[in-house]
Amino acid sequence: MQVAYYTLMHKAFSFSAKESLPLVIERDEDGVFVIECPLFSGCYTQGKTLNEALANILEVIALCSCDIIAAKRYHHCWCK
């Protein structure tokens, strides 16, 4: 298991574009890269290459952060 901190830049993110997020990167027995961002529940993805997996995790983090913002806005969380 490799833990890396990446500075993520994406217009959909609600946090600062300079904020670094921890990503857990593993390679399974088939050679597929699996990436998880432990700051968000259920925030993981995979890709055939590291670049593909990193591109995928950007989308997943954007979706997870949007869910949290929406839950805070309406004072409830449907994701638990």
Report on the architecture of this protein.
The termini are far apart. This protein has one helix and four strands; from the N terminus they run ββββα. With 80 residues, it is α+β, with helices and mostly antiparallel strands. It has a four-stranded antiparallel β-sheet, with helices on one face. It has one domain: Double Stranded RNA Binding Domain. The C terminus is likely disordered.
What topology does this entry show?
Layout: E1 2-7, E2 20-27, E3 33-36, E4 44-47, H1 50-73
Antiparallel strand pairs: 1-2, 2-3, 3-4
Q: Portion of residues in helices?
A: 25-40%
Under CATH, the topology is which?
A: Double Stranded RNA Binding Domain
Please trace the helix and strand order, writing H or E for each element: EEEEH
Instruction: Specify the structural class.
Output: alpha+beta
Largest sheet: spatial strand order: 1-2-3-4
Q: How many discrete structural domains?
A: 1
Q: Shape from CA axes?
A: globular
Radius of gyration: 13 Å
Number of helices: 1
Give the tally of β-strands: 4
- What is the residue-averaged pLDDT? 75
In terms of DSSP E residues, the strand content is 25-35%
Which architecture name does CATH use? 2-Layer Sandwich
**Biggest sheet details:** 4 strands, antiparallel
- Segments where pLDDT lies below 50 for 5+ residues? 76-80
Give the end-to-end Cα distance, rounded to a whole number of Å: 27 Å
CATH class: Alpha Beta
